[in-house]
Amino acid sequence: MGNRNSRSRRNRDMLQEALEASRADIQLPCGWEVGETVKGEIYFINHLDQINTYRDPRVTKKCKKRRKKYLPKYEHNLHGRVQNFIARLHLIKEKDIGEIYNLVEISVSRENLFIDSISELQRLDPIFLTGRLQIKYLGERGIDHGGLIREWFFNLSDEILDPRWQLFCKKDYYYQIDPNHTENPMHLEQYYYIGVFIGLALYHGKYFHSYFSNAFYKSLLELEVSIDDVKQIDKKVYKSLKLILDSEDVSIMDLNFMIGNYELKEGGAEIDVTEENKLEYTELCIKHYLGIFDAPMNAIRMGMMNFIPLEMLQEFEMEEISSILGGSEEIDVEDLKQNTEYADEINSSSVEWLWSTLFSFSEEELKKFLSFVTGSSKVPIGGFANLGRQERKFNITQKNSNGLPTAHSCFNRLELPTYDSEETFKEKLLYAIFETEGFELE
Question: Using CA atoms, how far apart are residues 114 and 108, in angstroms rounded to an integer?
Fold first, then answer.
């Protein structure tokens, strides 16, 4: 009897060990992330219910009771709100269509990325695009475990902004709708699918290459655009309107409610601009100047709403939408270092030289490095600690063969060969991040 009980316990222990080993390869449900207590214990973050727990959602067996003394309280911050937002979106889609499709392949070429991607978005029903997306680059043998899809979102968002498409133009640091967009005969259709792409980025939690103007985000949210927002779009118009608002006696400017032959309001030619109505005048001027962007913004919003109910997006402030869609460009090397894992066999000189090299890098070099390793040059909201909560932390392993450093962006992994000197190390790393492109089988 004792032997039978002992064997039974051993079998249960073996089964539990097998479960522990296998669940590491099972993706956490949407809205869940993993954390680590100050004592090194693993815990789970449930953003949908906004609680932390020791219970692993991937197993049905109750976990052994542990003292909650070291279990951190749930943090109510922007990162958590975004994860809650994404989890609720997925729940809505599951209720609407009954299931989430497991795998959806998008095939594109690097040389024709924009047109190929638009064609794929036209081909695929939005319902299918709520599933797990997998990118296939024509002519490459890479298998997408997450890195390629990050890279696709990042590179396509850059390609969309290329001025040759006449869809967007850059003013200082920000992008806006190109005033000459009507010269592109396909502009409204392309804006619609750009909206689909933006909706996908929000739904799947991916980042855009660059940032849009405040007026763009406000129009997306159907919020009123202010005179300060006009400054990012047209500084001359902004200065003219600001001069009117700041004047002590606007009557000397001899203005009426007309811009050229256009009436800002009915009977505008007969209505003089006075101190009493100059605020109304500037607001109508702003609506008139930005009216050229209405049709493109409506098309973008319609495309986006295939995945994102507008009222849910309006839960966020305009500045937050910029961060959610664009991430952060401020790369803190010390933060990355504190959130890095190392393989046991890694050469200590390689690690020392890596951090010395990264601390010496320019902003552009750091962006190229981060894109090389993760598929995107954007830092997650809240820093690099949140890079590994859903996927894998930035991790470094030893490369047994010679040649260049290798990155597996699907796993946020950097493989480093052994070099004779730090100078050679830096030279090889720079060549790898600037001159290599494309993915092969691991």
Answer: 9
Rounded to an integer, what distance in angstroms lies between the CA atom of residue 116 and that of residue 119?
Answer: 5
Rounded mean pLDDT, 229-238:
91
Is 169 annotated as catalytic?
no
What strand order describes the sheet that includes 394-398?
A: 340-342, 394-398, 413-416, 406-408
pLDDT, tens digit, 9 for 90 and up, residues 155-165: 999 999 999 99
Using CA atoms, how far apart are residues 255 and 151, in angstroms rounded to an integer?
52
pLDDT in tens, 358-369: 999 999 999 999
- Beta strands at 413-416 and 406-408: parallel, antiparallel or unpaired: antiparallel
pLDDT of residue 377: 87
Q: Which residue has tokens 């962007």?
A: 293
SS3 135: strand
- In contact, 203 and 130? CB cutoff 8 Å: yes
d(CA 225, CA 417): 53
Cβ pair 101, 130 in contact under 8 A: yes
pLDDT digits (tens, 9 = 90+) for 372-400: 998 888 898 888 888 866 667 899 999 88
* Gap between the Cα atoms of 212 and 115, Å rounded: 22
Label residue 215 exposed, middle or buried (CB < 10 Å: 0-12, 13-18, 19+): buried
Give me the catalytic one of 30, 63, 169, 410. 410
pLDDT given for residue 139 in this prediction: 86
Q: How many Cβ atoms are within 10 Å of 103's Cβ, its own excluded?
A: 10
pLDDT at 196: 96
